[in-house]
Amino acid sequence: MSLRTPMRRVLGAGSAKQGVHHWWVQRLTAVALVPLSVWFAVSLLTLPSFDHATVAAWMGQSWTALLLILLVLVATWHSRLGLQVVVEDYVPGPGARTVTLVAVNFAHALLAAAGVFAVLKVALGGAP
Amino acid sequence: MRTRPLSPHLSVYKLKYTMLTSGLNRITGMGLSVGLVLLVYWLMAVAGGARAQARADRLLSLPVMKLVYAGFIVAACYHLVAGIRHLVWDTGYGLERAQSQRSAWLVAVASALLMLLVGYGAWLSMARTP
Q: What gap in Å lies between CA A59 and CA A124, rounded to an integer?
């Protein structure tokens, strides 16, 4: 006889109270990053130059801007989930672990916001 | 805190190459997180305009950065190929010992080929844009 209540089974939450959400989002972002990272590598390496005019013109194209925003968001999300597991594995003690996790979260929020802001600024014509 | 029973961990096992492929995936992933910082720094520099980008380029074009970029290429290629292996595992296939040993070699060979391909692309790009 299982001691788990039907509600617990429906929620699938388990002892971490998070269910498979972390696991699943880590995989979703991984799958999304396959085409996004290939696209990014190919477009970066085929840029004719890395001077400001060329890069800004590239970032200003609608599809480039859109895919760059997706790349930044998905990559920061994937990185946040990955580093969270590393911290949980190797940072001992609940105090230090919580502080490190908060720092990881804040850093990734900053990265995501800055990346999206930068692409939008260039794409919407703000870059001088 | 009360001493709790410890499950077998890294230093308990003899190092096997299947362990190495798994550990490398984590290490390269951590490296790529640092790469993300560099990417956003570059994007912000471009958004700051021509002068801001020129300032950032002085740092980004230091000779030592070539080594950093090479490191990112190696890490990205490995993490991509090894990550796909993990995604296959997640479907429940390839988890038998013989299969995972074979796929470990496949990951090593495929990621090495990808590194060469991307490295060649980066070399061409560098030759074009000093």
A: 10
